[in-house]
Amino acid sequence: MSEFKNRYDFVLLFDVQDGNPNGDPDAGNLPRIDPETGHGLVTDVCLKRKVRNFIQLTQEKKPGLDIFVKEKAILNVSINDAYKGLGIDLNEKPTKTEDGKKRDSKGKAQGSEVEQGRTWMCKTFFDVRTFGAVMSTGANAGQVRGPVQLTFARSVAPIVSLEHAITRMAVATEAEAEKQGGDNRTMGRKNTVPYGLYRAHGFVSPHLARQTGFSPTDLELLFKSFAHMFELDRSAARGLMAMRKVIVFKHGSELGNAPAHALFDRVKVAPVQAEKPARAFTDYAVVVETAGLPQGIEVMDLV
């Protein structure tokens, strides 16, 4: 595995048409919104879920590319598997572990065992060594701070949340059918955003990458997942979603050659006609200012 030596900062631009990109379960699954500005929001957790789904679908059963946080997973089972794979029996209660510390209780790692479990988890699961994870439950494999961090995505302009009445030409039970008097229809509601262009930011730390084993090959796969993550995660509720731009700033050093915010400010997104509501990506102009870039900065547009 080659060593990770460069810092990266990146901008993601994606859009939604006639869909709900990230519903809020505390608000009846309405599209997330900043109440003060009207801008739409998509959480970092939502974006990471799509990366995980892409990796799980395209890299299944490949060594080191399993996913820790996946649908219907029982996390403590995966943590237990780490110690089974290491040949450490946590049901025994030795007087002392290898580093001289007593184990508090059966079934829970202690001392140097936790570090071994943490290393095994990073080596086995792509999302652990990429985004990090809290694995201190159950058998305890410690915590991992991931080298890749994402912000919430925020829409470039305020969004409008539309509510639609929908009809299902059927009912679930006979009791409902009798109540409807033979008119077996069920009414419901659906919320969509007519159009929204969202912008998220991300960071890759080479220092944390060395701690988790995150490699340049992993980074290449991560950027590929950004480009294609909406293609394999379609849903009628989410409408038409597409990744429009993945703009990457590669630094020539580990510490970086410029502040991230100064680089992000070079990515300008503006409406083509300010007086007209946007309904397509072509209604926006995206410009990356490359003139006068700090020395050691390389810009890549991956989509």
Descriptive notes:
The structure is a single chain. This protein is an alpha+beta fold. It has a domain at 8-57 and 145-160 and 190-301. The chain contains eight helices and 14 strands. Strands 1, 4, 7, 8, 9, 10, 11 and 14 form an eight-stranded antiparallel beta sheet that branches. Strands 2-3 form a two-stranded antiparallel sheet. Strands 5-6 form a two-stranded antiparallel sheet. β2 and β3 (30-31) form a beta hairpin. α1 packs across α7 (216-228) and α2 packs across α3 (112-124). The longest helix is centred in the first third of the chain and has 15 residues, at 44-58.
In short:
This protein has 303 residues and is of the alpha+beta class.
Overall shape:
flat
* Major sheet: 8 strands, antiparallel
Beta-strand residue percentage: 25-35%
Mean pLDDT: 92
Helicity level, as a percent range? 25-40%
Quaternary organisation: single chain
| N- to C-terminal distance | 27 Å
Secondary-structure-based class equals alpha+beta
- H/E topology pattern: EEEEHHHHEEEEEHEHHEHEEE
Number of strands: 14
Radius of gyration equals 24 Å
Number of helices: 8
* Contiguous runs where pLDDT drops below 50 for at least 5 residues: none
